[in-house]
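Hello again,

I reread your note about wanting to compare the complex against the isolated chains. To keep things tidy I'm splitting this into two emails, and this first one only covers the full assembly. Below are the input lines as submitted, including protein chains and any nucleic acid or small-molecule components. They are followed by the predicted structure of everything together. The single-chain runs will come separately.
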Amino acid sequence: MNHKGLLIIVSGPSGAGKGTICKELIQRDESIVVSVSATTRAPRNAEVDGKSYHFITKQMFESMIENGGFLEYAEVYDNYYGTPKDFVIEKITNGENVLLEIDIQGALQVKQKYPEGIFVFVLPPSMETLKNRIVGRGSETPESLEKRMSSAYQEIEQIKNYDYFIVNDTVEQSTDVLQAIITAEKCRVNADIKDIVVKFKEEKENA
Amino acid sequence: MNHKGLLIIVSGPSGAGKGTICKELIQRDESIVVSVSATTRAPRNAEVDGKSYHFITKQMFESMIENGGFLEYAEVYDNYYGTPKDFVIEKITNGENVLLEIDIQGALQVKQKYPEGIFVFVLPPSMETLKNRIVGRGSETPESLEKRMSSAYQEIEQIKNYDYFIVNDTVEQSTDVLQAIITAEKCRVNADIKDIVVKFKEEKENA
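Full-complex prediction:
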């Protein structure tokens, strides 16, 4: 097995079901480390600092931006959201596998900074299904629904920058596929393979 | 899912267990098509033409070599052995997944002709285990054992030309990993992905 952990980026249009798949994955595989975002917005009712988000000040956030402390970040309605880099890199270096659920803009930023990540694009079975799922949430106005659908069409074009795609028919199947991707990627021949060849060589010399 | 089938090449040193893993895979997944080698040697007792091997004449074999009809071939003790190209390409084009169990020399030839193949290297847990497995077969003289072990050490260097490696502790685990690799590769973003993007676009235009 490879020594270094994997960074698994699960991304896709809003409503494709990436969040549900990630939740199911974490339940099935407790060894997966979840990356927690930092934000400058105030905590809501049940949110726990360090679990839901790392709640930090705007000053702190901006100083981290300046020091290249984020794998990606964005400003949304006057609040910052971002993925702290050090946490992810430390876990990966320790051989742990880190899961990052993120929108497409964020994923493309992560790709710039960490191209060795495993980029997985979650697709809805059809745009009709996507629409029904977003409508089902009950939180959209006709205008915001229209806007979400129109960005979804644009976002799907970005699939070309990803390594894998999952057509999300059912959570169970999609999570099976995500687990298969992780299993396969652990067995990829990469730079670490040299250590394995050396191990066999040493066995020869000590024989 | 991708339209084109996969060519899965399972390879490794003699005694690593590639044959047992492939047998288990075929039992678990009936959709996998097994590539049958052609040979010029005479059939043995229970061997069935077209199943064990395609038994063909030396003249026929040499004419196929001249016409580029093999993905790989070798001459062993005055007999030819090879993988007919047309069969494999036809199945892949039909979207079927083809399994090719082959030694390392053969796999490297296939890589030249079909680099899009999925190249999987089966490793023994240790060289000690490999030795015990070869000895257990009871068919080796001390000299031929020595020779096999020495080529195994050389062959392991070739792992760098493969996509994946499987450390074969148990057949069950190794076959699980091989199945995960196939599942993951079916979801790889490749040239076929354009069709998926087009499908979603058409849905938009027809909406």
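For quick reference: The interface with chain B takes residues 1, 121, 123, 126-128, 153, 156-157, 159-160, 162-167, 176-177, 179-181, 183-185, 187-189, 193, 196-197, 200-201, 203-204, 207 of chain A (CB under 8 Å).

B.
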